[in-house]
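Incident log, support desk, overnight shift.

02:14 A customer reports that sequence design results differ from what the structure should imply. Their input is reproduced verbatim below. On-call engineer (initials T.W.) acknowledged and began investigating.
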């Protein structure tokens, strides 16, 4: 059974304009999905629909349905859905509500009805998973942006959701912090089989981890598939083409000019290896 299904789903906030338009999509358990598209395309709204905040919290009008583990989100209360779907919002600081790190994770466990005797151990485990072990007594206000974000993630992970939805999780992080976060998310996906749905504008950051891309434009799902499928569509059709990483622009220009096909370039290193295989040996030696 798919982890998430969009079945001809359309949505409008309090005005008639559809923000999501007839989305049909199924997300496999254990997959790492990245939602991309121009500003205003509906990426955040898509995340909110999986978490149930659309329509439970925002109201508005819907057609079709979104299902999580086969159950329509409209048939589950948001706190019930939160057991399956952990959400990290774009403005994640609004999710932090307590004074100290351990209180923050405990709060989320208490909300899910976890027995008090199990909480201390679960807090430690969740903090360890995100690299914040030993910081239990720290004041939340004293943490860096990246640490705060990992604390939100720990609070979400503590309740063991099998789906994680993250909206631009790296937007407030420096390049090193963003790389650390995605490496952590890649680990959660690969080792623990957590299904990921992540909004990210910097496609190069997620290429090493993602196995599926979803391209939204004006509320419509324009293309889904591997990096190769979706980036080729964007490049060739000129849809949100400015977001195609420069390295992939080079890759596709070379493929077009030479008729040669490269494997996906998930990292610069992979590009270097493949390019050096097709260059004359003398050039590679002297480089
Ligand atoms: N609470 C709301 N009430 C009314 N309209 C909204 C609300 N939230 C978003 N919208 C509108 O819905 C459309 C899609 O917004 P959404 O935030 O989902 O897009 P996005 O692709 O995530 O954009 P961005 O990349 O800028 O975050 C936009 O036109 C936006 O103005």
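02:41 Re-run completed on a clean worker. Output:
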């Amino acid at each position: 059974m798919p982890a998430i299904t969009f079945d001809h789903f359309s949505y409008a906030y309090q005005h008639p304009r559809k923000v999501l338009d007839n989305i049909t999509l199924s997300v496999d358990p254990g997959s790492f999905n990245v939602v991309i598209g121009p500003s205003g395309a509906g990426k955040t709204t898509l995340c909110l629909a999986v978490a149930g905040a659309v329509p439970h919290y925002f109201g508005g009008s819907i057609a079709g349905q979104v299902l999580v583990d086969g159950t329509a989100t409209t048939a589950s209360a948001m706190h019930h859905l939160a057991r399956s779907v952990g959400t990290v919002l774009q403005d994640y600081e609004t999710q932090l509500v307590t004074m100290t790190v351990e209180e923050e994770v405990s709060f989320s466990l208490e909300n899910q009805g976890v027995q008090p005797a199990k909480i201390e151990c679960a807090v430690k485990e969740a903090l360890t998973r995100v690299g914040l072990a030993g910081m239990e007594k720290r004041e939340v206000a004293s943490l860096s942006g990246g640490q705060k974000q990992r604390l939100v993630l720990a609070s979400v992970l503590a309740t063991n959701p099998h789906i994680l939805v993250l909206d631009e999780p790296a937007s407030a992080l420096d390049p090193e912090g963003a790389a650390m976060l995605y490496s952590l998310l890649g680990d959660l996906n690969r080792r623990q089989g957590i299904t990921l749905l992540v909004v990210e504008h910097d496609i190069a950051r997620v290429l090493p981890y993602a196995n599926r891309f979803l391209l939204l434009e004006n509320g419509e799902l324009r293309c889904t598939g591997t990096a190769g499928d979706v980036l080729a569509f964007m490049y060739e059709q000129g849809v949100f083409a400015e977001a195609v990483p420069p390295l992939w622009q080079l890759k596709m220009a070379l493929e077009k000019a030479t008729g040669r096909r490269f494997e996906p370039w998930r990292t610069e290193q992979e590009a270097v290896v493949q390019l050096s295989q097709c260059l004359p040996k003398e050039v590679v030696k002297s480089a």
